[in-house]
Amino acid sequence: MKETLNELAQLRDSRFGQPWPRHGLKLLYWFAKDCVSFGNDNVMISECDPANGDFGFHHFENRYDENGDKLLPDIDFPYYVVGNLNSPGAEELPEYVSEDNSPDLHNSNTDRIIVSLYDEEWFHRVYVTQHRDRSNDYDPNATYPISRGLLKIIRRMSLEDFLRKP
Questions:
Q1: How many domains does the chain contain in total?
Q2: Rg for the chain (alpha carbons), in Å?
Q3: Is the CB of residue 25 less than 8 Å from the CB of residue 17?
Q4: Separation in Å, CA 106 to CA 29, 47, 117, 141
Q5: How many whole angstroms separate alpha carbon 86 and alpha carbon 157?
Q6: pLDDT digit string, tens, across residues 23-49
Q7: Which helix (H) or strand (E) is 111 found in, with range?
Q8: Which of 4, 26, 35, 55 could be 31's S-S partner, Cβ–Cβ 3.0 to 4.6 Å?
Q9: SS3 assignment, position 3
C-alpha cells in the first residue's frame, strides 16, 4: 500500500480512476459528496449503510494473497468495498458514476473504494484501489489511503472542476 493521498495533485499522480473510461474519480466524488460527512473532532460519519448493501457496497475479505500479504492492515472493524457497477445495489449510484461503463471497455469498471466501518456509523479509514488486470485481485501498488482533508477538498468542488483539476 502506498502513502496517504492528502492533496488533489497526489490523487492525480496516483493515476487512480485514469484514463477514461475508468469511473474511479467519479466514484470518489460521489463518495465524498454523498456518502460521508464530517462531525465533531473530524470524525467521518457514514451517510450510507455499507453493511446493508447500499449502492452496491459489500463485505471485503482482506485475504492473504499468493505472497502471504494482505492488501490492507488487520483491524478490528469490518471492511466494505464499493464500485463494482455490476453488483446488486450499484444501480443506486448516480448515473454520472456509471455512464461510461461498457463491457467492451475492460478497464471501465476496475476502480473501487474500500472503507473500514466503526460501529456501523463512522468510517475509520477510506482507501482507493483498482483490480489488477482482469482478475479479482486488487493491486497493492495502486492502493492508497485517502485523507479526511482530501475528502473535504473534493466535497467543496463541483464535479466538473474536480475532473478538470490538474
A1: 1
A2: 15
A3: yes
A4: 22, 31, 30, 20
A5: 28
A6: 999 999 999 999 999 998 999 999 999
A7: strand 111-118
A8: 35
A9: coil
Q: Is residue 122 part of a domain?
A: yes
Look at the pTM and tell me if it is higher than 0.90.
yes
Is residue 164, in this structure, part of any structural domain at all?
A: no
CB atoms within 10 A of CB 77: 15
Q: SS3 for 154?
A: helix
For the chain, what percentages of helix, strand and coil (3-state, to nearest 5) are there?
30, 25, 45
Distances in Å between the alpha carbon of 147 and those of 34, 70, 91, 125, 137? 17, 21, 27, 8, 24
Nearest one of 35, 23, 146 to 86, comparing CA atoms: 23
The three-state (H, E, C) secondary structure of 42-86, written as one string: HCEEECCCHHHCHHHCEEECCCECCCCCECCCCCCCCEEEECCCC
Three-state SS at 116: strand
pLDDT tens readout for residues 109-156: 999 999 999 988 999 999 999 988 666 789 999 999 999 999 999 999
In a domain, 163, yes or no: no
- Tell me, yes or no, whether 2 lies in a domain: no
C-alpha span between 23 and 25 (Å, rounded)? 6
Count of residues making up the chain: 166
Range of the domain at 39: 8-154
